[in-house]
Design goal:
eight-stranded parallel beta barrel; globular; 15% strand; single chain
Length: 263
């Protein structure tokens, strides 16, 4: 279970100000905090108020490379900024976050992923919107896999995101997302990885922590490989570490939660 820390995002006030002022300190502090909390990747997002993502995003990548060896999930739909950030990253192992299931986006991003040896978050959404059924989501996943092979990528270079919606307004989507995760594991060998934006499930609910934790564990039993989430939510990370134990993915020791964070 790969934890992708969500905190280095310009939508947070301190990060947004740091980006405007090109002050590396808040970004670097959050990189250290999230690694300590249990993050395996760091999501990097300028937020919506960047004046020029082609400048700001590579700067963010560069200042984070100074202080962390965690791989970066470069989070933008501005693909010129994405390429500039991958160039600044300068090594294999980044995660492109993200593309929807639209051929022109696939044709733009998959060659970039192959060139920079990056993985790709692939969203089960197209110009029509987010499908309601698992079957339609899985069909999009199959499109991504077919295109990956055409561009020299392996299925497990893909992180398929079934898209989860807030349970308080789209309750019926949760079970379809879980079924999508199960079925994705059967569409190729090796299968694609799976991921979710975990905090989406609890948006605007007064019960966010327990909803996030419960969905994370349920999704892990369906085969979830990763989540973009709050790496400093101790109870969430403890729940994920415990689920790995019960699913026989880690060997038991009394300090298993600590070991999980140090991996």
């Amino acid at each position: 279970m790969i934890i992708i820390g969500e905190r280095i995002n310009g939508m947070f006030k301190d990060i947004g100000q740091a980006i405007r002022e090109h002050d590396p300190k808040p970004l670097q502090e959050w990189a250290a905090k999230q690694k300590e909390g249990g993050a395996h990747y760091l999501d990097v997002n300028t937020g919506p108020n960047s004046e020029d993502q082609t400048i700001d995003l590579p700067w963010m990548v560069s200042v984070l490379k100074e202080v962390t060896d965690l791989p970066l999930a470069i989070d933008t739909t501005n693909y010129d900024a994405m390429e500039a950030a991958l160039e600044a990253y300068g090594k294999p192992g980044a995660l492109i976050n993200s593309i929807g299931c639209e051929q022109e986006k696939i044709d733009r991003v998959f060659p970039m992923a192959a060139k920079y040896q990056a993985d790709v978050v692939c969203l089960c959404i197209n110009k029509v919107g987010i499908p309601k059924s698992a079957e339609d989501r899985v069909a999009m996943a199959m499109e991504f896999v077919a295109n990956a092979e055409a561009y020299g990528l392996q299925p497990d270079n893909l992180f398929i995101d079934p898209i989860i919606l807030p349970v308080n307004v789209a309750q019926e989507h949760g079970v379809e997302a879980l079924e999508t995760i199960r079925q994705i594991k059967m569409i190729s060998n090796p299968p694609p990885k799976t991921t979710v934006g975990l905090s989406n499930i609890s948006q605007k609910s007064p019960h966010r922590p327990i909803i996030n934790r419960t969905f994370a564990v349920m999704a892990m039993t369906a085969g979830l490989d990763s989540a973009i989430c709050d790496a400093n939510d101790e109870a969430l990370v403890d729940a994920i570490a415990t689920a790995r134990l019960i699913l026989n993915q880690d060997i038991y020791c009394d300090s298993y939660a600590k070991v999980f964070r140090q991996r």
